[in-house]
């Protein structure tokens, strides 16, 4: 199959119209982590219709399609798209807005699924490559680690691969621009919780109480010192507080006996990750002890850092350059602070993850907000990238 361009795909108006209708239908019916039953059924039906062998059930709702090239070859690659939505009330006012209260596709996974299905259709129509392609449609990327669950269910035992690739849309970035890098591209994403405990007491008599609020306040103020004094200036890390809970709104005259502070920690290297966990606990205890309070840390390692492999980045950059032009591709993009559970796949198999600009300019809504929408103009670009990546890997 020759290399294709987004313009070539746009000329196939029926193909693009079908993909747009599909994307907007998935958007209208969002399904959150491990509940992607309708979406999974659509994916399985589409793959079967175009003659691709499917396997269902990995990660509960995951679907894997397998397509063998018509030329002999032993190399096997996998292309992955995520399917799940988020718990957000949509506020776009679009005619295809979510029909499910409290849920919406606020991260573009509806578009990711559609782009990979479009690529599967084009490749199945002319599998002129040497080797095998697995199309992985994954549940539960948003926080619950669907990639990890698929792996634990035997993904790479059943479908061993030489390389695995992923794509995400990049809101606000120029439409079709591509960013990637070798090495750490996205951060490890961890959740931490510190529980400060004292006796509590009457607000008018704090001298008779052990007050955990003072300890918690000093801890929150001190957290930034972990980054400024424990992380080398040449490295990057983030600690943020996202939740504080204490006392009762109706009882402002009562010093609470417990304060819970929760947040996120982001890092790119194992040693920095270890340090953050250790330092958060030490800082919490050191803030609690002078006040007679106690502090207990619960640190949960969620997603590891996303590490791209050099060889696979070269293939991704070549395919992206063929698709949108080399001037629109940045192979040395700075690391992103977000996390992605595609990182679990990259721990098992070498591969590359890229961000493709979703366009709509600097005023466009960002992901994970109630007014975000995937840009359907990105669909032919994403399809072309996937097809050209298969040619870059297996078309020789």
TrEMBL record:
Its cofactor is Mn(2+). It comes from the Bacteria. The Mn(2+) ion enhances activity. Gene3D superfamilies: 3.30.70.360, Zn peptidases (3.40.630.10). SUPFAM superfamilies: Bacterial exopeptidase dimerisation domain (SSF55031), Zn-dependent exopeptidases (SSF53187). Keywords: Hydrolase, Manganese, Metal-binding. InterPro entries: Amidohydrolase (IPR017439), Bact_exopeptidase_dim_dom (IPR036264), Peptidase_M20 (IPR002933), Peptidase_M20_dimer (IPR011650). Its EC number is 3.5.1.32. Residues 191-280 form the Peptidase M20 dimerisation domain. One of its GO terms (molecular function) is hippurate hydrolase activity. Mn(2+) binds at residues 107, 109, 142, 168, 368. This is Hippurate hydrolase.
